Amino acid sequence: MHLKTERLILRPFEDTDASVIFPLINEADVVRYLLAVPHPHPEDRLLPWMRSAREATRRRERFHFAIVLRETRLPVGDCSFHDVSWENMSAEFGYWLGKPYWGRGYMTEAVRELVRFGFEDLGLERIHARVQAPNIASIRVIEKAGLKLEYIARREVRKDGEFRDMLHYGLIREEYSP
Predict the structure, then answer these.
(1) Mind giving me the DSSP string for 118-162?
(2) 142: containing domain
(3) Which of 14, 18, 71, 124 lies 20 to 30 Å from 153 when distance is taken between CA atoms?
(4) By three-state DSSP, how is residue 2 classified?
(5) What is the CATH number of the domain that holds 69?
(6) Per-residue confidence band for 26, with pLDDT thresholds at 50, 70 and 90
(7) What global pTM score does this model have?
(8) 114 contacts 93 by C-beta, under 8 angstroms
(9) How far from each other are the two terminal CA atoms of the chain, in whole angstroms?
(10) Which of 139, 167, 138, 141 is nearest to 155 (CA)?
């Protein structure tokens, strides 16, 4: 399964991506707001994770995509639906992008395509995302994809020993506009 935008290809991770992805995901600034990713990232956990993500996508339990630049064919990040509920026809998305690629609009482009895929190809009724309150860049990406702030959960998560507020965003099918 490959999704394409003007500058990107979203595709399942391949084993050969590990050598390019590892230095990107092992950057402290990249994982600062990622709840499930430790720093430093254990290199021996990356390939098993990529394989499990690929298998979960095949089984339609989660949908993980390597974000690949069309121009260079290099993977530069990840975007995914990681909390898929077929019963409720809903999914939560998440993402990260290697620091050298920040500020170029790649993540906005990838997330817009992921949202399109969710509504148009998967037939979802609701798409949602959570973001830590201080992550302004991520908030902008989510809002550019059309999601609306629904509520703020104060001190919802703990990262690096600190409790943090989470902003919850959502978009329902009838509000979606490609």
Answers:
(1) IIIIS--SEEEEEEETT-HHHHHHHHHTT-EEEEEEEEEEEETTE
(2) 3-175
(3) 124
(4) coil
(5) 3.40.630.30
(6) confident
(7) 0.93
(8) yes
(9) 20
(10) 167
